Amino acid sequence: MIRILFIVTIGVLIGCATSPVSFEKSTPVQSERLGPAYASYSANGPSKGAVIVIRDSGFTGAAVSLPIYVNVKKLANLMPSESVKFYLPEGDNFIGFSLRGLSESYETKNLQEQVLNVVAGNTYYFRLGYIEAGGVKLRRSSQVE
Fold first, then answer.
1. 82-136: per-residue pLDDT in tens?
2. Among 8, 12, 62, 68, which has the highest number of CB atoms less than 10 A from its own CB?
3. CA-CA distance, 114 to 92, in Å (whole number)?
4. Can you list the domains of the chain with their CATH numbers?
């Protein structure tokens, strides 16, 4: 009986591993986890668009931060329910993540990126979280606005 209860409990935790967090309910990333590139992307301007990345809440991977990269430069390391807002110039920009490695060299070699074509004045929302099939995914979302 205890074995069945344990298996059911684990199944429930895995099935509800992560869930979206709205920007208003998220916590801004702590300053000590902002990367060197953040200063380059922290100011808004007339030819820029806003990008907001919010890491899902949940148990899976909760003890590990996930690095966010913009144009192959580390922007921040996000913990669950944290967000980072930054501004990108118009045109194509690369936004991605990597699993946290022992070195930045490991992280940049294992980046999973996508192109974001920024239009000035627009705001783009992204979710970062673990998916049920295993692994991590960064995806555009309307669920976090």
1. 999 999 999 999 999 987 655 566 566 678 899 999 999 999 999 998 777 667 7
2. 68
3. 10
4. 2-140 (2.60.40.1120)
